[in-house]
Amino acid sequence: MNTRIKNIVVLGGGTAGWMSAALLKKVLGGSVNITLVESDEIATVGVGEATIPPIQHVNRVLGINEAEFLRETNATMKLAIKFENWYRQGQGYFHTFSSPGQSSAFCQFHHYWLRAKRAGLGKDLWDYDLNYLALSAGKFAKLETRDPRLELPYAYHFDAGLYGAYLRKISQALGVKRIEGKVNHTTINQDTGAVEQLLLASGVAVSGDLFIDCSGFRALLLQQKLGVGFDDWSHWLPCDRAVAVPSERLAQTRPYTRAIAHHSGWQWQIPLQHRQGNGLVYSSRFSSDEQATQTLLQNLECQPVADPRVIHFRTGRARQQWHKNVIGVGLASGFLEPLESTSIHLVQSAIVRLLKYFPHTGIQADVVKQYNQESRIEYEQVRDFLILHYKLNRREDSEFWQQMARISIPESLQHKIDVFAAQGVLVRERNDIFAESSWLQLLLGQGVEPRDHHPLAGAMDEAQLANFMQQTEQLKREPITAMHFHDDFLQRFDQA
Ligand SMILES: Cc1cc2nc3c(=O)[nH]c(=O)nc-3n(C[C@H](O)[C@H](O)[C@H](O)COP(=O)(O)OP(=O)(O)OC[C@H]3O[C@@H](n4cnc5c(N)ncnc54)[C@H](O)[C@@H]3O)c2cc1C
Prior knowledge:
There is one protein chain. Helix 1 runs parallel beside helix 6, helix 1 (15-28) runs parallel beside helix 9 and helix 9 packs antiparallel against helix 10 (365-391). The model has no long low-confidence stretch (mean pLDDT 96). By secondary structure, the chain is α+β, with helices and mostly antiparallel strands. It has a domain at 241-312: Alpha-Beta Plaits. It is built from 15 helices and 23 strands. The protein is globular and about 75 Å long. It has helices at residues 15-28, 55-62, 66-73, 109-118, 130-136, 160-174, 220-225, 289-298, 343-356, 365-391, 399-406, 411-423, 436-445, 462-477, 486-495; strands spanning 7-11, 33-38, 76-78, 80-84, 92-96, 139-140, 155-157, 177-180, 183-188, 195-200, 205-207, 210-213, 230-232, 241-248, 257-262, 265-271, 275-282, 309-312, 316-318, 322-323, 326-328, 334-335, 484-485. The protein binds flavin-adenine dinucleotide. Flavin-adenine dinucleotide (FAD) is lined by residues 12-17, 37-39, 42, 44-45, 47-51, 160, 182-183, 214-216, 218, 220, 242, 244, 279, 311, 313, 330-332, 338, 341, 343-344, 347.
């Protein structure tokens, strides 16, 4: 299709729609016109409140002032996710955004740690992790450092509704045009098969050269109109529902998300400045909506402030996330449960990818193919990481967990587990969202103990090793004293 792309239409005004509109307009500027269509009749999904550190790139590109952002979205800082009862009931571990310890040129820290642990010289892995030490003291700081060992990488928890409204304000200030109205029909060019116009209930027609489908689970253009098909991954990740309810805020706001495994699913707790976000993700094959709602309400830390709401979803991805002149972004392009807070990141990376391959002078089949291939790989990498949480559980309390332990997993994941179990080597593919330290924490947390460590970790004698471990812990503990308690940080930063 050799048409110059001048008019972009974004369908949907949830997080995906407004993030797409803001980023595209900011980067492409006057070279394109962007119109966003959203319907007041169709609510946004209303969840999606925990993020991962790359979201800071979005804020940087959009020129967002962090104090204003925290204020407008009632955000808090996120240093990690705490997984409770995932391996066995009563046990927990962290997935922090930092890397534990300090590594040498050819040998990562965890090999020294493994050797020290076996010799009875070391502590828990997380005792050498700055994010963990900060969060367990309830503290936070923005550390300005060039020393990678002393970085405190962070993300945010924010109010999904406020975040959408904030992105809308930014988008409209940049020149994005908003049209309110429900799309009832879509016209297709009979020769090319491309979408030409969205026809609204009001009679208004919105034409475009390129359409970004951010219509949520409806996937109005990509699935309903173009029928690209769906790769269903529910045999690996069988949870298909969530019940969500907000509750009163905690007296002290934690700088991390909690993911607590229950009888047939898991519960999230996301601390915000004004309230806590809660939800239970479950499989309808193992739990009714009523049972799930009851489990959630029984496990709230504070009083609920609204009625629980059940959300249905399907795990998997659109077979082609770019087809003809339609690109699916957000829930319209696929969904993986929010265990690692990856969905908003997948919105961000879809737009970054689209900007990389932006078809200024027309849509080329090879470019679309490349875009789709990269999207598929990204989704598969997240999928494998999520499956790992379930597969290696040793819970015996319910059929749900026992069945999850029995599922056959993708070969790519089994290979990673086997290589780590053999020699403690972390296999991380190019462009994987998750760093080696993420894989490390998950594998150890889920009970994989490598049979051997790297030979370089054996080069020190025991006294040297003990000294190295002690120095490492001291190095990591040192910055904590100067940090503020999380709530104090939020207050001071707001006033700075
Ligand atoms: C239970 C759950 C928990 C989640 N937790 C997290 C999390 O912690 N972290 C994270 O990163 N992500 C999370 N997500 C994902 C996250 O919520 C979404 O990725 C994000 O909100 C983007 O949603 P969206 O904009 O694609 O869709 P939606 O918010 O559903 O927006 C769809 C938009 O399309 C419009 N629309 C639909 N049909 C029409 C029509 N016919 N005409 C006009 N407009 C129309 C609607 O009006 C709406 O504006 C979670 C998702 C679920 C289900």
